[in-house]
Amino acid sequence: MLYEILAAVAALLLAAALAALLRVPARRLGVIDRRRQRAVPLCGGVAVVLTTCLVVAAWEWTGAPPLGDGIRELLVAGSAVAALGLVADVRRVKARFLVCGTAVAAACVVPYGELGLGGGVLAVGWIVFVALGFRALDHADALAGTVGVVTAFGVGVVAAAEVMDGPAVLLSVLAAALTGFLMHNWPPARVGLGSCGSLFAGFLLASVAALARTGYALASSAEVLFALTAVAAADVLLVLLSRRLAGRPLLRGGPDHLAHRLRRLGLTPSGATVLVAAAAFSAVVVGVLVHIGWGTRTATLWVAGVTLAVVLGLLRVPVYGLRRPTGVHRVGRQAVVRGTGAPGTGVRTGVHDIRRTAAGLATRPAGESYGSARPPRQSAPGWVPGGTATRSSAGSARPGDGGQ
């Protein structure tokens, strides 16, 4: 137990330090998240991957109890997926390459001898689904990291119940590394996880969960695995259904994920993250209890039903074609202000006002359209030859003031 505690503390501190140190290099290299309103460097994933690999390597070097042969293969495959995600962070990578690369890595860690060919193929597909689901969760600050920590603890308990000490230690290190990263990722985030870290975390979590459920019936395994990753599955299902119903391309990004819709309902960024994390915790607890025999399969069916109800409810939240609640828009280099709703006002009036102002002409007051009747212009008082000087409204003397 002492080794596990020391490894977790070391992972937490090292991940927090690396995430802070890598911010400047990530900015200089242009590894930033351009989907956000703020430029957020995507160095958190590299920090999590390096921390997990270094702490596990130090575990074996210090002479602690061995973690097992499968841990090295898991880390190598997970690092390959993380490298693919890092490439996706630096430059645009098509989704099919991410799917194929993750599938190849998953095929290297699935135990075909115990699952058989059909079960192995299903396990590979599920690992790819969860890995990409965690990548999709990285659409809001701290969301993927928080859900990853909760899921890592749950899957770690499942692995420990199967006397798989090596995978359990690996996930405890991963959870600690994600916690250290969250010190810089809590809203407003200073560091992003990126595809590198989200694919790595999702791949390890799904792989260990699949290994822990090896030897169980297919139906019960599917129920437990779904409960352990219900939030990631709900986000993917929500996005696919939403884009399908709206007639949008399935791979086209948009503000249609879980946190986006919760923000539309009025939640703050932190509130949305806490709510999603609480939902993930509830589902993970159900999955763990059913796995160890303290719960019935009916509980997992409840998780599936609630997940479906939440997805159908959030589908009613409008997210497409909405403009920001502001009255200012950009037209070229000029700002156009919307009208107040009076007759003759609006965007077109604002455009004409800008053009007339640039030409030195007077503009119409709000509520008066161009071409409508207008009272005659009165001549302004000014200096008259042989007369006295008058002052402007600002109080400054016009030419000829007192002959001085």
Automatic annotation (TrEMBL):
The chain crosses the membrane at residues 6-26, 38-59, 71-88, 119-137, 142-161, 167-184, 191-212, 224-242, 271-294, 300-322. InterPro entries: Glycosyl_transferase_4. The keyword Transmembrane helix applies. It is found in: Cell membrane. Residues 362-404 are annotated as: Disordered. Its EC number is 2.7.8.33, 2.7.8.35. GO terms for molecular function: UDP-N-acetylglucosamine-undecaprenyl-phosphate N-acetylglucosaminephosphotransferase activity. One of its GO terms (cellular component) is plasma membrane. It is an enzyme of class 2 (transferase). It holds the Pfam family Glycos_transf_4. It is a multi-pass membrane protein. One of its GO terms (biological process) is cell wall macromolecule biosynthetic process. Coiled coil: none annotated. Keywords: Cell membrane, Membrane, Transferase, Transmembrane, Transmembrane helix. Its main location: membrane. The keyword Transferase applies. This is UDP-GlcNAc:undecaprenyl-phosphate GlcNAc-1-phosphate transferase. It comes from Streptomyces canus.
